[in-house]
Amino acid sequence: MDDAWPEVVKGWELARYGHVERYRRRLANKVTVFATWDAGPGTGTVEARVDSFGLGRTLTRARKDFRDKEAFWTAAHCVVEIAANLPSLGAGVESPADSALFDTVAGYVHAEPGSSGEPDAELTFTLLSGRTVTLLLSDEQAFDLSRRIDGLDKHVWSEQRHDEEEESGGDYVVETPDVTEVRSGPDTGHDVVTLLDTLFGVTADHLMAHVDWSALIVVGEPAVSTLISRAAELETALHPRWYPVTLDRPGEQWVVLRRTGLVTALPR
To answer: In which domain of life is the source organism classified (predicted)?
Structure first.
């Protein structure tokens, strides 16, 4: 086989042979995933091999030919995720895949809804080297990342801050005002999640979160319609720290709960 892959599509190298599209993704652990789509009969296959030429030992292969391109790509991404977590399988030969990055992030992380039309998030980092890196996370991965960072804040960073306060010394007497009659909306993103579940019946299955918890995105029905129909109640419940907005996506609407700014006011 001619090892010429002249195109790159969403991280996949692509070689075309008539109506056949052959994709490959080379990983740093010496595993290469191949995905072949034959536009003639409309079928696709997915497999992972040890080398990048497709001649090595097969690690995994789809159990059937896919006749739906969406199912074909879903299977391809699943195989890549599995293969990427395998140990290195090389035999003294360096992989042609890019090496992993390790650098310090300069400034803030930018988090935006993904552009694929699916519930996902795009995280963009600018590194001290001047290089910009964008990561695409599914909604489940974004939630897991947020949960793990929140765990660091709760169990590690909070203890470090407490130790620093103790080292600074000094006894302070603070008069606590009476706030028994004050009603305040949710503070943290986790408070918003609890409020949505308790007051509106919107569970975490319908939520995506920015990695810094600056916004929560509600997707899917009936969650979105419920919040839009109860817009005034939602705004009152979130006030003053959070504000609801709507976001039009291809074929659907999202309700975005954010701390700053309004894009489109919810209809009353």
So the answer is: Bacteria
Per the listing, tokens 């919040």 go with 227
Q: Would you state the structure tokens that stand for residue 54, as one six-digit string? A: 């497709």
For residue 191, with 0-12 CB atoms within 10 Å meaning exposed, 13-18 middle and 19 or more buried, which class applies?
Answer: middle
Name the DSSP letter for residue 96. Answer: S
Spatial contact of 224 and 255, defined as CB atoms under 8 Å apart:
yes
- Which amino acid, one-letter code, is at 158? S
CA terminus-to-terminus distance, the chain: 62
pLDDT in tens, the chain (268 residues): 445 788 888 889 999 999 999 999 988 778 889 999 998 888 899 988 886 555 556 676 766 678 888 888 888 888 888 887 777 665 544 444 455 677 788 888 888 887 666 667 888 888 777 788 888 887 778 888 888 888 877 777 677 677 666 666 655 555 665 545 555 677 777 888 888 888 899 888 888 776 566 778 888 888 899 999 998 898 888 887 788 888 877 778 888 888 754 344 444 4
Pairwise CA distance, residues 127 & 133, whole Å: 8
Q: How far apart are CA 36 and CA 15, in angstroms?
A: 10
Rounded CA separation 35/24 (Å): 6
CA dist 62 and 41 (Å) reads 18
Residue 191, token pair as written in the block: 């408070």
CB atoms within 10 A of CB 145: 16
Domain boundaries along the sequence of the chain:
7-84
